[in-house]
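ARCHIVE CARD
Drawer: 12
Card no.: 0347
Subject: one protein chain, sequence and derived structure
Cross-reference: see card 0346
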Amino acid sequence: MSANIETRRKTIVFIDQQKFELEDRPYTPRELLTLAEENPAETTLVLKKGLEKLTDLDRPLEIKTGTHFVVFHNEPTPVS
């Protein structure tokens, strides 16, 4: 019947409270930072649960739906 119809699972993650619907596959912190329009050279992706810094930018992560990340900026923000 519909053997040629491919159903791909989606994974929903949040980066700094912004929702992203992604293909269900491993992603690197570099890919996720780029997706969130952050510069991987200037920021660090952090798993919100446990505040685990993901410093290996090219190590693929198995991501589950509902995972929350925050972005830390590596340089202090200047105060005017």
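Annotation on reverse: The first helix runs from residue 29 to 35. The two ends are 65 Å apart (CA to CA).
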